[in-house]
Cytochrome bc1 complex cytochrome c subunit (freshwater metagenome), 263 residues
Amino acid sequence: MKRLSRYRRHRFAGPVLLVFALFMIGTTFSVASATTQKSASTLVRSAAVDEGRQIFLKGCSSCHGLNAEGGSIAPSLIGVGAAAVDFQVGTGRMPMADMSVQAMRKQPAYTPDEVAALATYVASLSPGPAIPTQDVVNYERDGNTAQGGELFRTNCAMCHNFAGQGGALSQGKFAPSLMSSEPVQIYEAMILGPQSMPVFSDKVITPAEKLSIIKWIKASQSEPAHGGASLGRVGPVTEGLLIWTLGLGLLIGIAVWLATKAR
């Protein structure tokens, strides 16, 4: 006690105590703030899950089951993750009236906030692929257009056409055009494999290669038609058919005109 009393009267005792008090106050404030932020984040997520469940019960449960367990006409959504909801609902493919046909892209039935809430609810059921963030899908920074074109022609062109215009598949199905697809949707499709599309895992196509494919698709979307009318960019068959039809028709017209003039 005498030693403590002696140190208490030391000229540095006041500054040391002040620094210690400030340190303790700062530490306490940081811990309290982190706890408050965590609690607020938990509350926001809980509210989004509740909102998403209400949307699910009204618009999805009739096909996917009350607990997303699936049914006779629709698969289970347990484990599909938020990315599947964002892709299917965000592009208007879901909900759909007839589950026997291929889902087509259309105007979304829900707002972006409602889609996000629905995705949060489905993600809360079981772990699954998350929605890729803008930093993950930064194709401008990490993509390579030339590499993306090569990868697209190797892995995607047989279904989506060499120019990304889409094409017919077996049993009445089709690969959709990619000319209106957004980067996040393209990335989601590669990791999910919707409809007849296979899943391209990171072992098959790495994240960097996925970004290169996206960069090539975006470049293809904005590529001008230097040769004039592109005729849908579906290849030489369409162009040849048009030339043959118009050329043959023109020749027949000229022949008829010459025969008429000769009389």
